[in-house]
């Protein structure tokens, strides 16, 4: 019984302490709101004073210049001006004298002064009313705007006063210690309301780690599979040479040619893997400068004419198109798309290289072919690593399945994007759009 009474007393003390803290926080927030509102009223008052003075100066200048031009035909700073009145604002006279003190004109302006005073009093009354309204209602408005911060502070205060049981921390420690990579997707589930926030944060972190681990595992598995094929081919030809090819010239020549091809394929694959690995680890540096996109793509076009004589190439450009990019990497992305187009386009067919501005004015280049095209499913997976369509998976032009992944990485690093249009049997068009340079 004594223990229960002591626990109830501790709870009462705790609730009283929380109420006191809430009351203190409310008073503190109100005080801050009053200070902010007082500063707002002060700034509003100074704004009104400055605005009134500016309006008065503008009206005076307009009146003086307007009267001179209306009556004398011109305005001069050498004129002497004076106002005269006899205890009656409505009978004020405005006199203008020339440089010899000869009177040019004199007009009664009392009625304008009177109307100006009435208008000024009305504006002043409105401004005073606005200042009083802000002074009395502004504090409540500031408190409403500060309410989210006050709620955060109150919640933090409550959390800081929660007495966590030490066993909760031990349970959390055990759950993290016993976590395995294979079961990481299951996450941590403590079923404890007090630790729910920590549990959500940890599971979010674990989900990102699991996705990265899965991607890395898949990458290693795919790379191993791709390297296994050329190694097996090379081993097969070496064994054939060892058994029957020592004295057979035809077998020797066939084996050497096959080994050279597979070695070149392996070299290309390893270079692509290293490029992607450096990119994934942020070790691939970009030397971005302002370049003319026409000149970059013209170089790629001229290279394609020299390298590939089996297809017809056409280059189209429009105006001055500038892009902020790493020119070498940009050329590499274009070469990959052109090489891809050449693989799946019949000999003698045309491959179009275009440079221009996109619908929103962004710079872009496009590669268009009349090849075999892609299905919608293939378009959706075109940039996946090691992905190859079924129709080319076993063909000699199948490639490594990494070229488009590299091209996409390059474009992503330049904050660009791809627009792809493809129809089976008709061809494919890749448009690569880049951001408008900030210097333009």
How would the blueprint of this fold be written?
Layout: H1 2-71, E1 80-84, E2 93-97, E3 103-108, H2 110-161, H3 166-177, H4 196-243, H5 249-280, E4 289-292, H6 293-307, E5 312-316, E6 322-325, H7 327-343, E7 350-357, E8 363-368, H8 376-380, H9 403-413, E9 417-423, E10 427-433
Parallel strand pairs: 5-7
Antiparallel strand pairs: 1-2, 2-3, 4-6, 7-8, 8-10, 9-10
Helix pairs in contact: 1-2, 4-5, 5-9, 6-7, 7-9
Task: Characterize this entry briefly.
The chain is built from nine helices and ten strands. By secondary structure, it is α+β, with helices and mostly antiparallel strands.
Question: How much of the polypeptide forms β-strand, as a percent range?
Answer: 5-15%
H/E series: HEEEHHHHEHEEHEEHHEE
Calculate the terminal CA-CA distance, rounded to whole Å: 81 Å
Broad structural category? alpha+beta
Instruction: Please provide the count of β strands.
Output: 10
Would you give an account of this structure?
The protein has 440 residues and is an alpha+beta fold. It has nine helices and ten strands. It has helices at residues 2-71, 110-161, 166-177, 196-243, 249-280, 293-307, 327-343, 376-380, 403-413, and strands spanning 80-84, 93-97, 103-108, 289-292, 312-316, 322-325, 350-357, 363-368, 417-423, 427-433. The strands form three sheets. A five-stranded mixed β-sheet has the order 5-7-8-10-9, covered by helices on one side. A three-stranded antiparallel β-sheet has the order 1-2-3, with no helix packed on it. The longest helix is centred in the N-terminal third of the chain and has 70 residues, at 2-71. It is elongated, with a radius of gyration of 41 Å. Mean pLDDT is 78; it is low at 1-7.
């Amino acid at each position: 019984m004594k223990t229960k009474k002591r626990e109830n007393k501790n709870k009462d003390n705790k609730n009283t302490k929380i109420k006191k803290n809430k009351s203190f926080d409310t008073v503190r927030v109100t005080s801050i709101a009053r200070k902010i509102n007082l500063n707002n009223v002060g700034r509003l008052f100074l704004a009104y004073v400055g605005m009134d003075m500016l309006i008065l100066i503008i009206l005076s200048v307009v009146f003086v210049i307007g009267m001179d031009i209306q009556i004398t035909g011109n305005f001069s700073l050498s004129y002497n001006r004076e106002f005269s009145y006899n205890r009656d604002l409505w009978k004020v006279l405005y006199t203008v004298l020339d440089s010899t003190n000869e009177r040019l004109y004199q007009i009664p302006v009392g009625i304008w002064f009177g109307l100006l005073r009435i208008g000024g009093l009305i504006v002043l009354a409105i401004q005073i009313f606005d200042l009083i309204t802000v002074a009395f209602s502004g504090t409540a408005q500031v408190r409403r705007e500060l309410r989210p911060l006050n709620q955060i502070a109150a919640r933090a205060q409550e959390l800081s006063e929660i007495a966590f049981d030490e066993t909760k921390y031990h349970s959390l420690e055990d759950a993290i210690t016993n976590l395995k990579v294979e079961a990481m997707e299951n996450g941590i589930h403590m079923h404890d309301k007090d630790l729910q926030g920590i549990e959500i944060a940890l599971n979010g972190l674990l989900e990102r780690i699991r996705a990265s681990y899965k991607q890395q595992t898949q990458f290693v598995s795919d790379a191993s599979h791709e390297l296994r094929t050329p190694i097996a081919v090379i081993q097969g030809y070496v064994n054939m040479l060892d058994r029957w090819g020592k004295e057979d010239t035809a077998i020797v020549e066939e084996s050497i040619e096959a080994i050279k091809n597979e070695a070149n394929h392996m070299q290309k694959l390893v270079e692509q893997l290293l490029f992607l690995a450096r990119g994934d680890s942020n070790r691939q540096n970009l030397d971005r400068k302002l370049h003319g996109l026409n000149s970059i793509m013209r170089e790629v076009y001229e290279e394609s004419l020299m390298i590939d004589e089996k297809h017809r190439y056409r280059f189209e450009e429009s105006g001055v198109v500038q892009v902020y990019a790493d020119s070498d990497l940009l050329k590499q992305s274009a070469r990959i798309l052109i090489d891809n187009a050449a693989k799946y386009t019949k000999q003698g067919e045309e491959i179009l290289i275009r440079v221009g501005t996109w619908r929103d004015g962004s710079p872009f280049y496009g590669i268009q072919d009349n090849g075999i095209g892609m299905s919608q499913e293939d378009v959706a997976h075109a940039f996946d690593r090691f992905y190859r369509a079924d129709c080319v998976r076993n063909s000699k032009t199948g490639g490594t399945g990494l070229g488009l992944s590299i091209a996409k990485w390059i474009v992503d690093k330049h904050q660009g994007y791809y627009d792809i249009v493809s129809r089976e049997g008709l061809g494919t068009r890749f448009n690569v759009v880049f951001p408008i340079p900030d210097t333009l």
